[in-house]
Amino acid sequence: MPSLDQQRRRRLATRLGTLTLALLLAGLAAGSDGWSIRGLWETLQQGDAALIVGQIRAPRTLGAWLAGALLGLAGAVAQGLFRNPLADPYLLGSASGASLAVVLVLAASSLTGHGVALATASAVARLGLVGAAFAGALLGVSLTLILARGAEQTTRLLLAGVVVGVLLAAGSDLVTSAAPDALRGKQAFMLGSTGFLSWSACAVLAAGLLLALPPAWRLARALDALTLGEDAARSLGLSLSRLRAALVGALALAIGVAVSQTGLIAFVGLVAPHLVRRFAPAPHGYTLLASAATGGTLLLAADVLARSLIAPQEVPVGVLTALLGGAYLLWLLHRRRMA
Amino acid sequence: MTRSISIWRRAIALCWLVALSAAASAQPLTVRDDRGIEITLAASPRRIVSLLPSLTESVCALGACARLVGVDRFSNWPESVRTLPQLGGLEDAQIERVTALKPDLVLAAPSARAIERFESLGLKVLVLESRDRADVKRTLNTLARVLDASAQAAAVWSKIEHDERLAVERVPAHWRGRRVYFEVDATPYAAGAGSFIGETLARLGLANIVPIELGPFPKLNPEFVVRAQPDLVIAQRANLAEMPRRAGWAGLRALRSGSTCGFEPVAYELLIRPGPRMGEAAQSLAACLAALPAPGGAAR
Question: What is the ipTM of this complex?
Answer without folding.
Answer: 0.72
